[in-house]
Amino acid sequence: MVFALYSFASWSRLQSSKDDDWADRISHLWTVVLLAFFTILVSSAQYVGDPIQCWCPAQFTGSYVSYTKSVCWISNTYYIPMDDSIPVNIHERQKREISYYQWVPIILLFQALMFKFPNMVWKMLNSTGGLNVDRLVSLSESTQIGKQEDREKMTYQVAKYLDRWLKAHRQYHYNLLVRLRQRFSNVFCFWFAKRDGKYLTGFYLFVKFLYVANVIFQFYILNHFLAMNYSVFGLEVIEALVKEGSYTDSPRFPRVTLCDFEIRQMANVQRYTVQCVLPINLFNEKIFIFLWFWYLLVSAVTVFNYLAWLYQILLGGNRYRYVKKYLKLGDNIRNKTDAKLARKFADEYLRDDGVFVLKIVSKNSSELVLSDLINHLWLFYIDNPHTTLPHEKRQREAKMNGKNAVSTLELDIEELRELNNK
């Protein structure tokens, strides 16, 4: 507990990484912190104060009272409304037992682990794509401070590192086996598509799906743990507030319960039924009401964010639209030829993984950093003679030599003349 509180003292220590987006952090950061806080609150109420008080018969002395409280706490009490008679059949009483209140801290910690699990999978396995995304984002963010020369140098180094990674993960051969693997990569992205530029994006979509499945699975867990239809619990609270104007005690979290226990005296076994108070349920009820609305919010955010990433990744045209605006800011798109080359830059050079990394950088730094990074990558791309058209190369050389740039139409005519001569 001391080490956990020490880690909470530093927000940067708690956040730990910057290789995801804000929707992921709602699950693996904010929700985990909330569940840890509720665990400490409930544990304090259980182990510091008296979690249960029982109204014992008059003949019970101090030790008998302590024994009664201990037995009723570790065994399951049951709830019978005051207006109903207590069933004579023992099995009828057992059907109404409440068995969750002793285990609330455990289930809250388990839920916190489940919300953290997708992030743990992402952190452990994303480096298998050949790129340390967290380190890259941290370096990109550090370029926002310092002198202009230092920022330019750092941005150049980050872009150079990205350029080497993009060039290293490419297909060097194109045969039947490669074509079959490309077909599989459309479905199993993070298994087969490392050289097809879809590994990180496919793996990240899988982690996003884990976030969605987890938050939906939490309702299923609480339905069984609380032995009630927790999925509609929040709707019942809203209905009570609308109809009655206030929310009264819920039978799902009763404060006053009954407890049966037996005492053996010599050869006789005597059964007692006592009435107990569960102050801990005052906290449990408010906690699970809040968690219902919080989980609903997290579900909506997670599902919407997952669908947004699916839309951005599955539609190839989004790659070009994403980098186009930053290239225009750098005055690198002036005509149709530049626009055509920019499309090749997005689809053949950056591909899905490169655009994904740039989006992660943008979500964790600033638009200015991303603009500088994209324009540096653009310079690396156009300086590669294997990725450009002949007339584009001549146009760049003319610009670099200080000559007047030949128009695109003249260059096309010149190429046609060369072909006719051949």
TrEMBL record:
Main subcellular location: membrane
GO biological process: monoatomic ion transmembrane transport
Transmembrane segments: 26-48, 203-222, 287-311
Function, in words: Structural component of the gap junctions.
Membrane topology summary: Multi-pass membrane protein
Pfam families, per database record: Innexin (PF00876)
Alphabetized InterPro entries for the sequence: Innexin
Similarity remark: Belongs to the pannexin family.
One GO CC term on file: plasma membrane
Subcellular compartments: Cell membrane
Record's keyword terms, sorted: Cell membrane, Ion channel, Ion transport, Membrane, Transmembrane, Transmembrane helix, Transport
Protein source organism: Biomphalaria glabrata (Bloodfluke planorb)
Protein name, as recorded: Innexin
